[in-house]
Amino acid sequence: MSRTTDRLLVDGRLVPGTGGTFETIDPATEEVLGEAADGTADDMDRAIDAARRAFDSSGWAGDVAFRARCLRQLREALQNHADELRELTIKEVGAPRFLTFGAQLDAPVNDLGWFADLAESYEWTTGLGRAEPMGMPSERKVYREPVGVVGAITPWNFPHQINLAKLGPALAAGNTVVLKPAPDTPWCASVLGSIIAEETDIPAGVVNVVTSSDHALGAQLVEDPRVDLVSFTGSTATGRSVMTAAAQGLKRVFLELGGKSAFIVLDDADLKAACSYAAFNVATHAGQGCAITTRLLVPRARYDEAAAIAAKSLRRIGVGDPNDDKTLCGPVISARQRERIEGYLELAVKEGGSFACGGGRPADADRDRGFWIEPTLITGLTNESRTAREEIFGPVLVILPHDGDDDAVRVANDSPYGLSGAVHGGDLERARGVARRLRAGTVSVNGGVWYSADVPFGGYKQSGVGREMGVAGFEEYLETKAIAEGV
Ligand code: NAD
Predict the structure, then answer these.
(1) Closest ligand 1 atom to the C-alpha of 468?
(2) Are residues 234 and 300 in the same domain?
(3) Residue 1 lies in a domain
(4) Among 171, 276, 376, 485, which has the minimal tally of Cβ within 10 Å of its Cβ?
(5) Are both 343 and 201 inside the same structural domain?
(6) Rounded to a whole number, what is the distance in angstroms from the first to the last CA of the chain?
(7) Contact 391 CB / ligand 1 (< 6 Å)
(8) Which alpha helices (H) appear in 21-133, and where do they start and end?
(9) Rounded Cα–Cα distance for residues 276 and 77 (Å)
(10) Do 403 and 332 share a structural domain?
(11) pTM of the full predicted structure?
(12) Going by CA atoms, what residue is nearest to atom 22 of ligand 1?
């Protein structure tokens, strides 16, 4: 990597971490890629201070045209480095190459333009006209304003997508940001910081990037009274801590959390196409996507047939080198994550499940380095099992039977989560009806793709609070002020 990857961005300057450096590694080979800046509590303190000052005393919050220009400039700068960023993402995240042409890189970079356009066309002021509340003639207007300093805390699975899906709307809305990325993918964030510092006119302090090996810096960001809003993506357990800590200062939180989404195959669906697609979905990026459908619900009478189709597809997919443009399922991010998945595979067996395919690490000799888990299908469990209820975050699909549309909806909704879902059926009206009954934030019907800058994404229940992307996602970063003038 020729670009600077071992610096924090604090108050417009690229600086070393006062904690020294820590290693970032390639999950496909376990090779050390290099060093990242290890930010400390002092670095975080300076970053928050810079963001606060930039919000309170620069013209950033009030200049929509300048913000839109800066966002487009950032998009262009990132696009100019697309090849370099692509190779970095494949190496640091273990992301299959084909995904970098979509959600792992190109799509979120391009989406910055959507937020620039939105900022320009947005109705920042709405006139409510005259009224005479309590006999007092008044002219009323509603103004939308940035919230202030945003603390953005992100995970490792789709780092560019999540970093930019927070930065884009937060900046378009006029906020300043302190970004704290996951310790597993510091380089994806530090290159963003260096490009912002060196190739855009974004003023000092408006964006700060603090990489660190220490999760405690996330908690510090949540607790600091100078931060007005926390935008968090990560696990439900951490999201709960964030919400609890933010409650002390009654701070606004926006949470994108875990999922255990259902893929429903109705009895009039093309079983082969649907179950193959479900297998493709769960194997993508080794299942490390919060909205991936990890419970396959099929008509009871066709359970064995459906399991055979899904297992055949998963076996054919297998694992592969993320550099190869045909690879769908690369490595998982770390040894720790692999152990966590293996723990769930053991649990599945204890709970009475069997592996129709996969079930552990691949046997091939060229996978003895790196963190690999074979695409796995688990049969024989009920929706009450922990394996079917808890997020595994690996290429692991649990297949469950249903007894018709009502039962499929019941099983799908019988989950602490409600992030996403899919319905496949021959009769579109009927499939749409089932989709409408799912308690989940995004649903795909017959392969429809909801992922896009203008589509709000987020969860019901323990999958989160609020929405990212779309107009709803932009408005998460706004306050509402009403002014009434006596006339
Ligand atoms: P994680 O919760 O362990 O960490 C996420 C981020 O939070 C990291 O930057 C981490 O350093 C930070 N953090 C850790 N403890 C903290 C604390 N007490 N206070 C504040 N910040 C803290 O999650 P992960 O393992 O990095 O990512 C995987 C999880 O993320 C999965 O559960 C997945 O479903 C979820 N996820 C959700 C979405 C979504 O949009 N809903 C998207 C991607 C990932």
Answers:
(1) 40
(2) no
(3) no
(4) 485
(5) no
(6) 63
(7) yes
(8) 41-57, 64-80, 82-93, 97-100, 106-121
(9) 39
(10) yes
(11) 0.97
(12) 218
What's the rounded Cα separation, in Å, for the pair 91 and 288?
16
- What is the tally of structural domains in the chain? 2
Could you report the per-residue pLDDT of 408-442, keeping only the tens digit for each? 999 999 999 999 999 999 999 999 999 999 999 99
Report yes or no on 474 lying in a domain.
yes
The answer to whether residue 458 sits within a structural domain is no
Write down the pLDDT at residue 2.
Answer: 58
Q: Count CB neighbours of 432 within 10 A.
A: 15
| Residue 156 CB less than 6 A away from ligand 1 | yes
**320 Cβ contact partners less than 8 Å away, ≥ 6 residues apart:** 96, 326, 327, 328, 329, 330
Q: Are 307 and 267 part of one and the same domain? A: yes
One domain for residues 283 and 159: no
Cβ contact 144:116 at 8 Å: no
243 in contact with ligand 1, CB cutoff 6 A: no
Per DSSP, helices labelled H in 249-302 are 271-283
User: Residue 256 catalytic?
Assistant: yes
Structure tokens, 306: 């459906």
**Ligand 1 pocket check for 153: Cβ under 6 Å:** yes
CATH number at residue 245: 3.40.605.10
Dihedral over Cα of 18, 21, 22, 24: its sign: positive
| Ligand 1 atom 34, closest CA | 258
Give kind and range of the element (H or E) at residue 236. helix 236-248
Residue positions counted in the chain:
487
Please say if the pLDDT value at position 366 is more than 90: no
Question: Quick one: which H or E segment has residue 253?
Answer: strand 252-256
Which of 256, 374, 468, 476 is an active site residue?
Answer: 256
Q: Has residue 402 been placed in a domain?
A: yes
Nearest to 29 by CA among 100, 88, 99, 94: 94
What would the pLDDT profile of 339-356 be if each residue is shown by its tens digit? Answer: 999 999 999 999 999 999
**For ligand 1, atom 37, which residue shows the shortest CA distance?**
257
Same domain, 190 and 202: yes
Closest C-alpha among 49, 48, 47, 57 to residue 9: 47
pLDDT, tens digit, for every residue of 281-331? 999 999 999 999 999 999 999 999 999 999 999 999 999 999 999 999 999
Report the CATH number that the domain containing residue 381 is assigned in CATH.
3.40.309.10
Q: Which of 243, 244, 259, 237 lies closest to 461 in space, CA to CA?
A: 259
Whether the CB of 458 sits within 6 Å of ligand 1: no
Judgement on whether residues 137 and 154 belong to the same structural domain of the protein: yes
- Pocket of ligand 1 contains residue 334 by CB under 6 Å: no
Q: Do 102 and 250 have their domain in common?
A: yes
Q: Is 418 helix (H, G, I), strand (E, B) or coil?
A: strand
